[in-house]
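Format notes (please read before filing issues)

Several people have asked whether sequences and structure tokens are stored in separate files. They are not. Every record keeps both together, in the order shown below: the sequence lines, then the token lines. Line labels are part of the format and must not be stripped during preprocessing.
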Amino acid sequence: MKILFIAYYFEPYQGVGAKRVSYWAKYIYEKSNKSIKPTVITAVEPSNEVLEKHSDIIHVEDTKKSFYKSLFPNDNGITWINDLKKYFNSNVFDYDAVLITGGPFLHFGISDFLKKKYNCKIILDYRDPFAVNPLFKNQNFLKLIVKKSLEKRFNRTADSIITVNKYCSNLLIQDGTKEIEIINNGFNEKYLNEINLTSNKLSTTIDIVYAGKLSHGRDITLFLDFITNNNNIVFHYIGSDYQMLNIHENIIVYGEKSYKETLKIIANCDIGMVLTGGHAFESTTKIFDYIGLKKTVLVITEGEKYYGSINDILQSYPAQIWCKNTKDDFLLINQIYKPLDIDKNILFQYSREAGLDKLIKLIKKIK
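Then the structure lines:
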């Protein structure tokens, strides 16, 4: 069986949007006992290293040309879909199924084109909500109506729909006839096996690490005040928003790092921090890296503790601390934290490999 992955983002793109599909495409052939052969179409120009890993990868450039770009300036799929159509109109199509992942999302519209022209199976992968996303509080009403209409059309064409958790599933717009498969994200066990992640930490401080953006309700002002007044805690930040952090002896800023470099930094810390606005659907890929490295997970929420998708993920994980975004709650970190020796047998459910197993079963079911 031949499957085509259509992914705007793919390796060597460093952002989280490329991690899930890059893993699937790289390992599905061997994991399926060579029964599913992948090809990838991406807007990201592949490096020589990526070409060595993936035997079939096709670069279709996003020319950024579309009359509708002004309506959806933050969704590159609106321009890329035209480039995809040009590619398919001038090349041989030889695939049994097509998996389209987003965001961006508007290139999901290519599914209708492919279905009518080639009658292939279509799988849509929503890594986040598209039309209805509670994080977009001031979304234009007319734009919301248009997005709902588009999403419903996308999903009507699809043979199967994938998303990352049940809360995101409940936000998707469809007619109720499609069963939505939940395939969560996970840690990349291949990377963890390739590099030495044994901590060489010598200090007696509690080291907390956060890898990611500080936007979308992720205000850590109170947390940083707490850090600067606690000599036994050091905060490590990995990401592009370093300008938001003041220089302090208890705050170490690395800037943006590669995935492997990020894992090495996490390995030498005690606690991995997750920030949430308190919405049930919110999840984050970094939580799986923390789990894969057997770190205590610290969840700082603007909403209720032990709530939503993040709570579901952590149900079977013994090392977790939940705090509301208040100075009083941050005192729990010192009170609750203690190193734990976590049984590696419970970790498989949090891996990318476990998610790929689910994907293979889904593909074989719809073929």
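For reference, the curators noted about this record: The radius of gyration is 21 Å. The longest helix spans residues 141-157.
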